[in-house]
Design brief:
heterodimer, A: about 240 residues, alpha/beta, two-stranded antiparallel ribbon, 10 strands, about 35% helix, B: about 300 residues, eight-stranded mixed beta sheet, 10 helices, about 15% strand
Chain lengths: ~240, ~300
């Protein structure tokens, strides 16, 4: 495991590279969710990275600009920037490990970024893990879970919701995820995740899209619990098997 | 301008952190800061508090290390220890050694929640520590006055006369139910949660046996005698722990009078520092403390 900064020095991104444990030219970029969901899902996405590297993938997980350890003020990020960040991560992984075949895995808002970035280069496989497919519902859900704003009405669960970001999110629909050409898995670990509208749209575009329900901990909204219930082990294992 | 770099240190370089430093290097005589995990939240801190704090301090010439304790975030578990408590002590010691090896004149430990507890404990155990800044540290701060503030707040929020009647009728059982009926803190409050499987066996709770009030009074005396600067900050978000401005002074009157110790109660902040205003307020407090304790002295020298 190799943590490092990459990209433009003024806008450096923090990433962690997990080399494949076997000789391979296959690489996966993991796209995090956002805000509180990012913090809560972090251990599970680290686990997924370990699983994938053991299965013969070079893996890069990273923080978008203005989030986590990456450069940028918390107000600086927006959807287009984050899609470019996914593309930069793919370039970095190619440079690091001579990757020729890419897959992207995105959780929640990260699934939106992964889908939009999947037209870049040759993304053979795409995993959308409990994807956000309705931005307005997503914002409502985040807002409903948040403490009352006392000083700044752009605070949302500890993150800053700028006007641009709110607009970006309100525009998220199944159609806004683009036209991924890849073999696509839409994985629902939460029964509340609506996968069929997105799957139907992707199939109508000719994408090889499948859906799978793998009941597991909705790690992006579940506080860590005793006894390992805070990790979505079944979902991570399913994704690893499906990609391989 | 600031500069950030990834560092790995400790056994087999298994501890992962980020050093944030001013492009111009350290200001002379100013200690480095080491930021300690809040529960199992990785080194970015609750709602990115630690990233924002590190960058704000670097703008004032202060170098900071935020890192993951072993088994948390991106740091691997260490195999050279017999207990989680020992692992925490060794991790913090390794972090302090790393920074002093890089030229730090001394180190200030900073932590929120369990991180505050670790900062306090480690400050007692590590010689190079010259200060500790502790936010919402769980500890023996409760007192009769704390309890009365608690009941008063409950009466104001609820059906006061009914609760009062129950209090008079049934005494302590009702009091206990009132306490048990508290709402948990809002926001990302993972600090209070036990850790997931890779860091189980009580990483957050069990490994941190609290001192009694008498023990903590002794520990405070020892730290202040060593000239370690201390700052205790409490928020309104952890009411069960702390709920009024003068609580620290009431519980530790001698230490509170010492010029090396400061304390504050942030009435408008939540435990997770879920708003930008709360984070900015805390960062301003840290900055002022650094300026008054080290930067002014450095300028004078």
């Amino acid at each position: 495991m190799n943590p490092f900064f990459f990209g433009d020095s003024a806008q450096q991104l923090f990433g962690i590279y997990h080399p494949s444990l076997t000789r391979s030219t296959r690489g996966v970029v993991i796209c995090h969710p956002w805000a509180r969901e990012y913090l809560l899902a972090y251990p599970t996405l680290k686990l997924l990275a370990h699983r994938l590297s053991e299965a013969g993938w070079h893996v890069l997980r990273f923080d978008y600009f203005g989030t986590g350890d990456s450069a940028g003020d918390s107000r600086a990020g927006h959807a287009d920037h984050w899609v470019r960040d996914v593309q930069a991560a793919m370039e970095e992984l190619e440079a690091l490990a001579d990757v020729r075949e890419f897959a992207l895995v995105g959780m929640r808002l990260g699934a939106v970024m992964a889908a939009r970035a999947s037209r870049y280069r040759t993304v053979r496989q795409l995993v959308l893990w409990d994807p956000v497919t309705d931005g307005r519902s997503y914002l409502a859900e985040m807002g409903a879970m948040s403490p009352p704003a006392r000083h700044d009405d752009s605070d949302l669960l500890g993150a800053i919701l700028t006007h641009q970001l709110r607009t970006d999110m309100e525009r998220i629909t199944p159609a806004s995820l683009g036209d991924p050409a890849s073999r696509t898995l839409i994985l629902a670990s939460d029964p509340d995740t609506a996968v069929e509208p997105l799957a139907a749209r992707l199939r109508s575009l000719g994408t090889d899209a499948s859906t799978m329900s793998v009941p597991d901990v909705p790690v992006w909204r579940t506080e860590w619990e005793r006894g390992g219930k805070g990790l979505a082990v079944s979902a991570a294992n399913y994704i690893t098997t499906w990609l391989s | 301008m600031i500069h950030e770099r990834v560092v790995q240190f400790g056994p087999q370089r298994s501890l992962v952190g980020i050093v944030t430093q001013p492009a111009t290097g350290r200001a002379g005589g100013v200690p480095d800061f080491v930021l300690l995990n809040s529960g199992v939240i990785h080194r970015v801190g609750s709602n990115r508090l630690y990233v924002e704090l590190a960058r704000a301090l670097a703008a004032h010439g202060v170098t900071t290390l935020r890192f993951d304790l072993s088994g948390i975030g991106d740091s691997e578990r260490r195999s050279d220890v017999g207990s989680v408590r020992e692992a925490i002590q060794r991790d913090v010691t390794d972090a302090v050694k790393y920074m002093t090896g890089q030229g730090a004149a001394g180190v200030v430990l900073f932590g929120l929640c369990s991180g505050a507890f670790d900062a306090f404990r480690s400050a007692s155990a590590i010689d190079h520590v010259v200060g500790a800044f502790m936010v919402d540290m769980p500890g023996p701060f409760q007192s009769w006055r704390h309890f009365m503030h608690h009941v008063g707040a409950r009466l104001r929020k609820s059906d006061g006369p009914t609760i009062l009647a129950k209090l008079l009728d049934k005494s302590t059982g009702v009091l206990q139910r009132i306490i048990a009926d508290e709402q948990p803190a809002t926001g990302v409050d993972a600090c209070a949660a036990p850790a997931p499987a890779p860091v189980s066996d009580g990483y957050v709770v069990g490994a941190r046996a609290r001192s009694t009030r008498e023990q903590m009074a002794e520990e405070l005396d020892e730290l202040l005698a060593r000239n370690v600067q201390l700052y205790f900050v409490f928020t309104a978000g952890l009411e069960r722990n702390y709920n009024h401005e003068s609580q620290f002074r009431g519980v530790f009157p001698d230490a509170a009078r010492h010029e090396g110790l400061s304390h504050a109660f942030l009435q408008d902040a939540d435990h997770a520092f879920g708003t930008r205003a709360a984070r900015d307020g805390l960062i301003a407090l840290v900055r002022e403390w650094v300026v008054s304790n080290w930067l002014r002295q450095s300028d004078a020298a």
